[in-house]
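so my prof wants the structure for this chain in the tokens format not the other one, which i didnt know existed until like an hour ago. anyway here's the sequence
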Amino acid sequence: MKKVDLNCDLGESFGNYTCGMDEQVIPWISSANVACGFHASDPLVMQKTVALAAQIGVHVGAHPGYPDLVGFGRRNMNVSPAELKAMVQYQIGALSAFCKAQGVKLQHVKPHGAMYNMAGKDAKLATAICEGIAEVDDSLILLGLAGSELLRAARKIGLPSASEVFADRAYEDDGSLVARSKSGAMITDEDLAISRVVRMVKEGKVETISGKTISIQADSICVHGDSPKALAFVEKIRTELTEEGVLIAPMDDIVR
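here's what i got, hopefully its the right format
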């Protein structure tokens, strides 16, 4: 039976600011990417999110980003590979403490926003992230954009990796995500998003924003937790994939 992971970025609230519908979304997913305090979240939110995942049986991953609360980690930053490695290790360490307190094994690491996109195209940044992860725990899975430099760097150093696709994002012809600043970057039509996901999982193909069909590997599907349609997307995607004979499973069951 074909297997695929269904992941969502969670734990992105902080202080009096609430972001996303974590409690409603988490029962529908198999892996949670938990923000680590740099682009979003705070210690109480991190603790609560890990505890919620543990209660439901959802696997947990660290979701490190640039230190940019105001920009939600979506603004590019000019940092050295050494600084980037330290940022990633710092955030993995913070979330690992909450995982240990809850008796949860950290499963994966998925960079957030601008860090994810920049490292997807820059081999030096990608290598810094993967080396940073491996130095902390070389059993952690690197979750990166399908066909990206992140996945190439992970394979090069022998770090387990999973290829991620997006339910609610449009693709360029080179397999990168269409920038959010461009028209058509976000896919808001639920039926279209679901049909694209099913095709990516079952056929390994996706139609780009220009209308070209490209190959893509789908180990894990991301639904953004801060999207207003996150709950509707994740419910319908899981239901449709199950009806299509696809088993929703955590990354550990797919990569190892």
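also thought this was worth mentioning. The chain has a mean pLDDT of 95.
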